[in-house]
Amino acid sequence: MQANLTFASLTSKGPWSPADRIITAVLVIAFGLFYGFQVSDFPELEDDGLFVLASAFLGTAHSPGYPLFVLLSQVMHLLPVESVALRVHLFGSMTASVGLGLLYYIGRRQLALERIACLFGVVCVAFSTLFWEQALIAEAYQLNGVLFLLLLVLCARLGNAPSPGKLLVAVTGFVLGLSLANHWPLTVLLAPAFFLLAMPALNNAVKLIPLGFAGVMLGLVPYVWMFVSGSDTGFSHMGNFPGISEYLFFISRDVYADVDLKQIATINDRVLFFRFYIREMADQFSLLALPFIALGMLSIARLMPLRVVLAVLYSLLFPVVVILLLDFTYTSIEAESMRAYFLTVYLVLGLMLMAGISGAIGQLSGHPVRLLILLGPVLLSIIVLGFYKNRELSANSETASARDHGSYVLARMPEGANLFVTDSWLMAVITYLHYVEGVRPDVHLYSQYGTFLPNRLFNYFSLSPSGKSQAVADFIALSGQPTFMLEKPDQLSMTYMDLAYAYQVNAPASEVEQRDLDFLKNLLRRLPGNGWERLYYESNASRLSRFMTLADLDEPLFFGNFLLNLMAAEQLLLSDSGEISVDRVQRLMARAQSLIEGQNEFDRARLQILKGHLMVHAGRYEIAREFYDLALSDFPVQHSSAIPALANVYTLTCDDKALAVLRETYPAADLSRYGFHITECNQGQE
Predict the structure, then answer these.
(1) What phi-psi label fits residue 529: left (phi over 0), alpha (psi between -120 and 50 degrees) or beta?
(2) What pLDDT, on a 0 to 100 scale, did the predictor assign at position 71?
């Protein structure tokens, strides 16, 4: 009898009750603590560190600024916690837990779904990979998710109200303005979903549109603060804004035009991005949950008005819109960068999961045992898979690597040295160690283009690119202190490249120390996870390969390491100096093949290309072409690994299309590095 009463309370479909308020509060607190105990007390690489510093010093994050995140995160600095990074990371955990509370509220109050179904959906979203990952770092996407859910509720109420009140219109506009002040590009792209939900109000409350617009303007006030607070002496991405035109340039993301305009995306890239999106969407939840998500979509389509159905459909297809609009080539780094854009999609999938389970409960009402048998394995699999897939997130492995890198660079600086921090990967880490933790206060940090750091030689907007480079060169020439640069030494025509990530200006090559080589080798001993850490690992291996053949590393480094075996085999096969040891290459490739399980399609295709290279070396050209064709069918031609593959396709088959793709896709400087692969047509077969 007690079990039936418990079951009835969990599957009640009554109005929003005190019990639901308690459940919402418990969810917010429980998951806030769950994520909070996992966050790191040190910044991660790249954007996480920039957001930590922007929050810590009330500065401007990278373009377009994200002023709402910076301002709201200030509440966490009231906590009696010593670590600045920990406080800002806790803000991410808090916004994630609030988002889960809102998700429960929408399912229970707005959609009138079963209580247990709403709890089930919240748990599934909480343990999904992207949501968990974003809950542990300082980024704008979790806050964007909270504002997205709020706008869904408010716009749905606007659309359902026969005569919307002034307060509802003003609040909706205000939240829309706040969302624009947090992440305007994603808010604009998601706006059709909000428009569809609120569409009836456009006819019923035309006179209130100015009031809604006033609410939007009020929500955009954080942008006014950002304009006023820009400073050349504080932590601000571009420093002081001389005028409105420079400010709009920063907000519009035109700062990154030099990156965006270099993209040469084709339809093949968009297909690869689309496949990536589908795989990511399926990977967020257990496959056992997919039937319930499909059932939920059918329920929404059958029971809800057409505008709601279209809004849900657009929200789920939103990544397709992003893929069609962005002119990005498909590479690992671009795919990794786009993952977080899709967080709102998984929130909507969570709602569909709730709706599907609620429908299943309706069919099995009065049969708690059958319901447990049906739902238990699904929930258990999602939780177990969540812990398995996200175990590396909780270990904070990337923050350990970031601290190692940053500490090493500062430790090797001479007394009173100047250090130009231009590398986006390590800029925030070095800055955090120096300014927040007080590491090496004698070192003077500068940023080459006047970005983010308080030590600026010029205002970013005051000089042309050549003028900026000249200003830095003049400063270095006149300074009596030893001067170093973090990354990209060629930008100032430096004469040598060091392996320690900090390059001394005009230092002779003889000053490369063995400890730098040892440091890189030690970094390669730590197996990479996925995402940025994996990309950074490959970058470190490439740095080391400039000075020694990767295949000459200690043999123990290769066991269990797919990436190192792959890169060592690539290096041997693409080398044009001396004879290739086939046995050595085959041993490396065999180890990589044995570790292929779990690798992405990008690296699988790279291994196929290597097999083609090996067949060319053996004179088995038809087999080589089969490997190349198979790999290139799924491989973006913009990746450097595709250059020798396409070159060999041309050489072996007289395929003028392959040669045309090479010449259209790559500048002559890139092709010259692989010129020994591009020979006269069919030369290899003569």
Answers:
(1) beta
(2) 96
